[in-house]
Amino acid sequence: MDDLATALDFARAVRDRVPEGVLAVHCQHGVSRLAVVALAIIADEAGPGAEANAVAALLRQDDDARMQPNPLIVSLADAALFRYGHLGAALAAVCPRYVAWRDHWRDIALDPGAYWEQARRVRLRPRRREV
User: N or C end of the chain: smaller count of CB under 10 Å?
Assistant: First the structure.
């Protein structure tokens, strides 16, 4: 939450100093956490009630369809911007990848022991040798 708040404060300061400027948000991969930081910045500028427009603006930048917004960071962005789940709902309405990741992590959170047991079995499974 601190990192997200810092990013939002920085974006607001840039927007106040250079209102006509463009803020580029990037990192090495930019598909999970950073996608949500960018969404939060866009949603903050768009204002309450424009969550669907913010999601559309974010997804327009995803030419390769690689973004997989991190559900935990989406919930933090919703909280930081006082959007009460509207960012997550707007993402879920148009982004099947987000829904898949959200459901995956929800299932893990409900039963982490089962997840780790499954991961252990997969990791210990003997590999086939190609002939």
Answer: C
67: buried, middle or exposed (CB in 10 Å: 19+, 13-18, 0-12)?
buried
Residue in this structure with the two tokens 């002939």, named with its chain if needed: 131
Largest CA distance in the chain: 64
Residues 44 and 89: their CA atoms lie apart, in Å, by 16
Tell me: pLDDT of 56 over 70: yes
**pTM beyond 0.90, yes or no:** no
In this prediction, residue 10 has a pLDDT band, given cuts at 50, 70 and 90, of very high
Structure tokens at 90: 């707007």
Q: What is the mean pLDDT of residues 74-90?
A: 95
Distance CA 94, CA 112 (A): 28
Residue 125, token pair as written in the block: 């499974």
